[in-house]
Each structure stands twice: as structure tokens, then as C-alpha cells.
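WARN retry 2 of 3 for item q-0093 after timeout on previous attempt; input resubmitted unchanged.
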Amino acid sequence: MVVAVGFDDEDMKRDKAYFRAGCNSLRWAGIGPCDADPALETLGNAPGTHILHANAPAIDAEWLTEAVKRLRTGDFVVVDRLNYNKAVWQDVVGRLQNIVSFDMYYCGLVYVDPKRYKQNYKINFLKISRLWQ
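OK item q-0093 returned
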């Protein structure tokens, strides 16, 4: 189940096509910028693995923290356009426990697992790309 939050209609179409390309049987729900709260209900009620895909400029730290708390072991959060709202990311990653997070400048990933100690990684693609030159 993928729940996309805070994107406009055009971005929602691309988002759905992108995730469906990876899994044909995917359940997908798109929730607009003004309706972020229903996403929490959708996440809590859907069976299976969840991916929350959030647009950073359209959400706040309180909402994202609450959303991550509702996820189960093995679920993911993808925060897109992270470079536009870095404060939300830093606040959420700072308060949550039992997550593994990856800050990749333009997007962030959070993996939820209560058995793990908190780990935060910063991925610098510029340094990685220089290794291959």
C-alpha cells in the first residue's frame, strides 16, 4: 500500500505510475496537500506493507512524526523534495526512535523497525560519483 501525501494532481499521476511500475498489484491512495490527516487513517487500516510518500513542503514535523508512529515493522517513509524543507526532516529524525534513516539531500527514507537501534545516514552522491570517474 502506497499513500502519497501533499502532491498536486500532475505529481500524483507520475507517483502512481512510478510505484505501479515496480508492483502491478499495488494499492495506491493519493491525498492532496490540504488533506494530510486522512492519510493517517488510511495507513492505520490497510493490511500489508506500507510506503508513505510525502511531499516535504506540504507537511509539518508533527504530522510526519505521528504518521511514522502509526507504521509497522518493515514499513517505509519516502520524504520527497527534502531540500525544500530540511527542518522537518531534522526534527522528525531527531525525535523518533527505532528507525533507520537515510538523508539523500533531495529525498529522505525512513525504515521502521522496533528491533533496531536508531541509525541515521547521510548519503553524499557527489563523493560517490567522483569514485567512478
